[in-house]
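Hey, weird one. I pasted the Glutathione S-transferase family protein sequence into the form twice and got a warning about non-standard characters only the second time. First submission, copied straight from the form history:
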Amino acid sequence: MTTHIYSGPLSMFGAKVEIAAREKGVPFELVMVPFIEGDHYEPKHPEVLRVNPVKQQVPVLVDDEVSLFDSTQIFEYLEDRYPSPALWPDGIAERARARQLEQKSDEVFFPNVIKLFGLQEAMQSAPAIAACAGCARFYEEMEGLLATREYLAGPYSFADIAFYMACVFADRKGAGMTDATPRLLAWRTRVGDRPAVRAVVDPMMRFLASQGRGVPAFLQR
């Protein structure tokens, strides 16, 4: 049975899953669900509705007898099913820290970016300034981690994939990195130059450009 990944042209979480699958060399068929103005996906794809009936969101992975939604759960499945190359560190403690970093990217950093989605016309407002400050604090924390390593959890991992994609969306919404975090900027270049990452992010940027939306300066090829 062919592995299917259901995503969308501007799905950050779908991009995470696709990058992970490409890093592992998993053969898969990518299904882009219909996209309409306002960043909504209509009509809902029947497989997305079947696998994720409550949230009705991508990403969804269908592989043999396994059907999953949620990018983190899909990460874990891919690691179990395709253990090489590994995308979690070897040691138990190291894996725990990497998993925590991936979770913080989604649940601590990215909520600040989500707030900015509705504040693009009010970027000088107190809520927008607070959201940008939250992103900046997180950047500083990650800058500290990179003082002794090239990637967030030591070896390249799911934590890097998750945070890289969150950073792409933060930059799009006005909360990008600055020269205050030079190690993090270098990390962003290292991750962004990986073939699996470019294979996913470049089409996303082309889609943005085709819609007349801004493309982050660091991703303008």
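That's the output from the first submission. The warning seems to come from a hidden character in my clipboard, not from the data itself. DSSP finds eight helices and four strands in the chain.
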